[in-house]
Amino acid sequence: MKKLLLAIAVLHTVCVAASSRQLHIIPQPVRAELREGVFAAPGCRITAKGFPSQPGDLLRLASELAAPREKGSSRRGASTLLLRLDTTAGIPREGYRIRVTPHSAQLTAGDESGIFYGLQTLLQAADANGNIPCCEIDDHPRYGYRGLHLDVCRHFFPVEFVKRYLDRMASLKLNTFHWHLTDDQGWRIEIKRYPRLTEVGAWRDKTQIGGYDEKPATFEFEKYGGFYTQDQIREVVAYAEKLHITVIPEIEMPGHALAALTAYPELGCVNGPESYEIGGWISGPSNVFCPGKEHTFEFLENVLDEVIALFPSKLIHIGGDECQRTRWEACPDCQARIAAEGLQDETQLQSYLTHRIDRFLAARGRQLIGWDEIMDGGLSPEAVVMSWRGTAGGIAAARQKHHVIMTPGQYLYFDKKGSDSPEEPVSLNLALPLEQTYGYDPAEGLSEEEQQYLLGVQANVWTEFVPTGRRVEYQLLPRIYALAEIAWTPEARKSWQEFSEERLPAFLARLDAEGTPYRVPAPRGMREESLEGGRFTFTIRPPFPGCRVFYTLNGATPYDFDREMPDEFRLVVPEGEQRVLKCVAVTPSGRRSIVVTTRLSNPRK
Ligand code: ACM
Ligand code: ZN
Questions:
Q1: Ligand 1 mutation pick, 388, 411, 414, max ligand atoms within 8 A of CB
Q2: Packing angle of the helix pair 469-476, 159-171 (nearest 10 deg)
Q3: Backbone φ, ψ for residue 400 (5° rounding)
Q4: Cα–Cα distances in angstroms (integers) from residue 318 to residues 300, 360, 396, 404, 560, in the given order
């Protein structure tokens, strides 16, 4: 009896601890309800039912939950984690159902992706000891296409980095990796038939450094480059597949082709003494393929044949953006093509190229996707439009009954800086605060009828100003959490306040403990602004518990040996005087936020 009472007391303690916790899941599930008690995952028995064959990868993932922890549960082997594939349960595609009691955790889905995502949810729900709060979760994605892009041309990132990128995507239920493989600043995919693409086109002798607005530009004169062999590409595609991620390759045409033209100048309009030089960020009109020459189509189709053999993705991205067509105006071959095909102008010449490539891909069972410029001059029949110049292109394409991916620059360009502060690292000259990304609703501006053409949403990470993998992570974190929620969670379940104050802090604390580079949000309650008055009260909250906020009042940069801000900070500015209040958040690992400057003045009456 004494033992039983003790057991009840212990159980009660655990239950209280669990009920005081919350489910911190990103993206927010469709429905998630906490129940009393916890399921101690370490040491649990894992069983799988309903699978056509042993789901080895899913069982391996589940075993991460069951792995013993240092301070593991004493109830080893007493509980069960059941993975159940049930196509009759009425669970939407990629969705899942979780029922966790103190004795069992049941995860049911109608497909293996659903089981995979359910396991990601359980992994997030588990605390450091492997305890999962008892709960009921019913979940499925808002969009079938949940994408993230990476530009490996402006800067190159090795296979191991790409795999970690995919890991992070999968943990947040993102399922499409858009791999931007060719551009002016480097050709990054081995093409056997055209070896100079990587022998020449993957390397540059100089790299523009400095910010977008820097004039004149500064260059670093070092050989820089790299590319993926076809074996490496296959390795990444296979790795992604295990993470339920489709990899869409992008082969840019007809613009952004400077690296290819450097390798094979005969693909341009002017085939002669002109030298192409890779290295600057801003490309001129000479970076375009010549659609007047048959030879160009032969090249593009041969490249695409090798690309198709490497990537099982139905969608193949052909770029199409920012093509300067002035070269075509003076090119006899281009003008002859315009005349022969009865085209009106150079805009229609680009459309002619897109249509031809569309037919080529369709004949091979693939589908063309391009940036929204592919609409100029008439959209080709099968094309999917990726709307980046705002949402207007995507809306117009949906109205033409074309499928659309929304990736508008004002919400989803993660190469942008986090704020307008001069302290932000060298960046594009535009700011994109986290709240702006979070607030985006991809269905905005589309009628219900038009929304059926909206496949989903994607964020892009261009890398002109992002030279290292660590900097990629800084641009991505914490924005990727907002992206995941936009892509997965029903709009009615999103809440900036709840996300930024409840769940995000838990994820930031984890990043901080891991040592991952991320952008530390500024202390909540402080903003870059100028205020007038005599008495000021600021209610300060650090980005997550454990961070501290320090300040100065004389304009000096605050450090962690300066004065620490109390939760409620009061200040009196005498009449006729002003103060410059600067504050910074410092995390437990020593990482700093951007300094926030608030100017306070009390003008003489
Ligand atoms: C783009 O950002 N040029 C698609
Ligand atoms: Zn031409």
A1: 388
A2: 20
A3: -90, 10
A4: 10, 12, 20, 15, 49
Decide: 438 in ligand 1 pocket, CB within 6 A.
no
3-state secondary structure of 236: helix
Which two tokens mark 393? 């292109």
Whether 183 contacts 162, CB under 8 Å: no
What pLDDT does 268 receive? Answer: 94
Q: Which of 185, 253, 371 to mutate to test the pocket of ligand 1 (most atoms within 8 A of CB)?
A: 371
Check if 414 has its Cβ closer than 6 Å to any atom of ligand 1: no
Query: Can you read off the two tokens belonging to residue 509?
Result: 């604390």
pLDDT computed for residue 382 by the predictor: 85
Taking the model in full, what pTM does it have?
A: 0.94
CATH class of 2-139: alpha beta
Are 528 and 597 a contacting pair, CB within 8 Å?
yes
**Ligand with the closest atom to the CA of 369:** 1
CA distance 167 to 183: 25
Q: Where are the alpha helices (DSSP H) in 20-127?
A: 56-66, 112-125
Rounded Cα gap, residues 554 and 562, in angstroms = 12
Alpha-helix runs per DSSP H in 401-478: 409-412, 434-438, 448-451, 469-476
The pLDDT of residue 22 is 78
Fold annotation for 145-368+375-382: TIM Barrel (3.20.20)
Q: Residue 404, SS3?
A: strand
Atom 2 in ligand 1: which residue has the minimum CA distance?
A: 388
Residues of the chain with pLDDT under 70: 1-21, 70-77, 271-275
Nearest CA to ligand 1 atom 3: 321
Backbone angles phi and psi of 392, in degrees to 5: -60, -40
Does the CB atom of residue 388 touch ligand 1 within 6 A?
yes
Could you give the CA distance from residue 406 to residue 101 in angstroms, rounded to a whole number? 39
- What pLDDT, on a 0 to 100 scale, did the predictor assign at position 12? 38
Name the residue ranges covered by the structural domains of the chain.
Answer: 2-139, 145-368+375-382, 529-602
**Quick one: which atom of ligand 1 is closest to the CA of 409?**
2
Tokens standing for residue 145? 């296409």
Would the CB of 145 count as within 6 Å of ligand 1? no
Index of the ligand 1 atom closest to the CA of residue 388? 4
What token pair was written down for 290? 């010549």
* Class of the CATH-defined domain 529-602: mainly beta
**Closest ligand 1 atom to Cα of 371:** 4
- Going from the C-alpha of 597 to that of each of 145, 423, 552, 586, the distances in angstroms are 40, 11, 10, 16
Cβ neighbours around 545 below 10 Å, total: 11
189 - beta bridge partners? 228
Rounded CA gap, 464 and 180, in Å?
A: 13
CA 187 to CA 197: how far, in whole Å?
Answer: 6
Q: Rg of the Cα trace of the chain?
A: 27
